[in-house]
Known about the structure:
Layout: E1 6-8, H1 17-23, E2 28-33, H2 41-52, E3 60-63, E4 65-67, E5 70-71, H3 84-92, H4 94-114, E6 119-120, H5 144-160, E7 166-170, H6 191-196, H7 198-207, E8 212-215, E9 219-220, E10 224-227, H8 232-242, E11 248-253, H9 264-275, E12 279-282, H10 286-293, H11 302-308, H12 319-323, H13 326-336
Parallel strand pairs: 1-2, 1-12, 2-3, 3-6, 7-8, 8-11, 11-12
Antiparallel strand pairs: 4-5, 9-10
Amino acid sequence: MALGPLMVGxxxxxxxxxxxxxxxxxxIGGVILFDRNYAEPRQLEALAADxxxxxxxxxxxxxxxxxxxxxxxxxxFTPLPAPACFGTVYDADAHRGRAxxxxxxxxxxxxxxxxxxxxxxxxxxxxxxxxxxxxxNRALHRQPEVVAILARAFMNxxxxxxxxxxxxxxxxxxxxxxxxxxxxxxxxxxLETLRDADMLVFERMIHYGLSAxxxxxxxxxxxxxRPAGYSWRxxxxxxxxxxxxxGAVFSDDLGMAGAALDGGxxxxxxxxxxxxxxxxxxxxxxxxxxxxxxxxxxxxxxxxSARLVPMHGRGRPTWQELEADSRRRExxxxxxxxxxxxxxxxxxxxxx
Length: 352
């Protein structure tokens, strides 16, 4: 059985009978976890093992664990600084900024891998601008070349821990004022302006070996009237053909206001897959998931599944080994000094 193209949420800290039945459906390929699914590391490890045991190939398990405002798992995990902290350090000492970003990527990833989570939707490749409140300090820096340098370091740290990176939000969410959780933001810049700014980060990261991207629920009307996550022009023509990206493409959560379409979830999934997404996210609405899998069968794609399978995590320490790891303690202390009181996260209803 190949991995299906739907990534879905579950309701609690353990699988119930309804979850197991749903996750066994061939349309499902992954599970995204939230605060509601977490109590402490060993509970998470047991939950991940149960999810992975549902079927073969194992379902992907993902989470938003960026740091700062967006850290789903907190008790027992190291508090991670907002990504912008790495940019602040870089401005004063470029070598130290890169080193801390790599350490941050490693620590985030190794703690998740110790619990069996395959990957985090990180890092954000957006630019930090005054326009975007929802991105804000989730972005590494305001300058695209610096974002690419720090994101590469963060990605390499994730790789050291056996985790692949997901760059978001393609082609860039940092330069619009609106929050796509609540509305459909519009970016009126032309393609050439975007290429020289927000998109430059994605171009660099693709060259550095980025494994996956997550598409923005933002419309760029001077390029395409559809939001990027529903746009064949953005995902197939520009991302794949022009930028040469060969990895996995994820949609942002289709439950967000910026993703609304007439026809509901079945139409949203069909349009996103047709545009070039390999996996689409339905995070918080079980009825929407059911409406999709009870409708027409989703088209099978061996190529789509082949792009997703490499997102499985590689290797992992036990949590006991990690607790005894001196590197973890040293990195945690260094990162803690960057942001003594990290902000609280958005909550379950505001991924990704």
